[in-house]
């Protein structure tokens, strides 16, 4: 007989444990090669023994090895340690350990796994961020630790890249230690350019999860930072230790969504957060209409007729991989480089792009923003090549640092509707809008403010060519920046004006 010594057996929540002979056997053998059995009884080959709260600490068991032909047996003694980490053997009234998980903006965080230690039960926070463990034995020791490591892109966008870079360069600092933690993408207790690189890879779909960080981090709500400008100056309390539980405990945690420094993450099914995006003045990217022959390699020049006050944008460009191959993306008037795009998944029918600049940019409608170098696999027209999607990287653009707008892709034709000018602009009492109609037909006007509220609409029939429309103060109930959109059978034209008192 050969016994395993020093085994540790854990009692379950009912104060019971079992030990099998096979757990103790460490390589018993018969010197003559005869068949044999093992067990805890010399006569019956009993295979299992049980332990309970009366046997805590060190115990000894005999394991027998018996020759199946002759019945001759021998035994060895194993030393076993019986432990009670679940404190099932501690008498007393059960206590409640409960709490809530929320963000620094007081948004409840749902589906956070709350653990009390190894080999212990766990709870998940509900839609209002609450959890509770009932009937926990008094006198027990526990480590309350939250965890959530899913949905890495929740709340993460190129706008976060912009805000983190402005913080790194000292232009505009992040406003709280929790945002510092959110900006530490690679979890090395500092914020620098490496965090920008890692976060952009996540946005572009190169990463599906961060290699050195979880999706969420959690801080004990009662923890006080010694230095809010350097939250890592001392160890951050990401769990809560309970020693000798003697009463009900309420322990809250503040959740930090890694990468989300503008607080846009959806944190629960009860989250009432509404994304600050409307149809107001979307960023319109444009391609020239042209025919492309099979196997022809061309540079698709991308323009915009309203690239104004843009700090950044991101999108997924979808296409049919049987029609084109994307060779590279080349920056022109914007500083787009290889790191701003991911073309490695194009066999799945998309590439992703994420671009931002240090300062807001404006470009004229004749400036090429960037080029897509493609090879045509079939004869086709540029109007059927690309589409804007949010399949991987959500399609959105940023005017300034807090205005999120949609992105649209249009094909520029030789003749399309256009708003040429507004004169005067800004204006007080009246102004004249000059516009071009490629063909006679209906024009639908919509005027709205920066919040997307419609201020004035008008539908009229117009002749072909240059047209004018006079606007009066009485037409619009509002001041400040006013966006306008003209929709015709030959395209959509957009412009803005400023109405002052």
Folded structure, characterized:
This protein has 501 residues and is mostly beta strands. 7% of the residues lie in helices and 43% in strands. The protein is built from four helices and 34 strands. The strands form eight sheets. Strands 16, 18, 19, 20, 21, 22, 23, 25, 26 and 27 form a ten-stranded mixed beta sheet that branches. The longest helix has 11 residues. The radius of gyration is 34 Å and the shape is elongated. The model has no long low-confidence stretch (mean pLDDT 91).
Would you summarize the structure shown here?
This protein has 501 residues and is mainly β. It is built from 4 helices and 34 strands. Strands 16, 18, 19, 20, 21, 22, 23, 25, 26 and 27 form a 10-stranded mixed beta sheet that branches.
Radius of gyration: 34 Å
The proportion of residues forming helix, as a percent range, comes to under 10%
The largest pleated sheet is described as: 10 strands, mixed
Terminal CA distance reads: 100 Å
Structural class: mainly beta
Question: Strand-residue fraction?
Answer: 35-45%
Count of strand segments: 34
Overall average pLDDT: 91
Write down the overall geometry: elongated
Number of helices: 4
State the low-pLDDT regions, or none. none
Characteristic terms for this protein:
501 residues, mainly beta, ten-stranded mixed β-sheet, five-stranded mixed β-sheet
Helix and strand topology:
Layout: E1 7-10, E2 17-20, H1 21-24, E3 36-39, E4 48-51, E5 57-67, E6 73-83, E7 95-102, E8 113-115, E9 122-124, E10 130-136, E11 142-147, H2 158-168, H3 177-183, H4 193-203, E12 216-220, E13 240-242, E14 249-250, E15 253-257, E16 277-288, E17 291-292, E18 297-304, E19 310-318, E20 324-331, E21 341-342, E22 350-361, E23 370-376, E24 380-381, E25 387-389, E26 396-399, E27 403-412, E28 418-423, E29 430-437, E30 441-448, E31 454-462, E32 465-472, E33 480-488, E34 491-499
Parallel strand pairs: 1-6, 7-14, 7-15, 16-27
Antiparallel strand pairs: 2-4, 3-5, 5-6, 7-10, 8-9, 8-11, 11-13, 12-15, 16-18, 17-24, 18-23, 19-22, 19-25, 19-26, 20-23, 21-22, 26-27, 28-29, 29-32, 30-31, 30-33, 33-34
Helix pairs in contact: 2-4
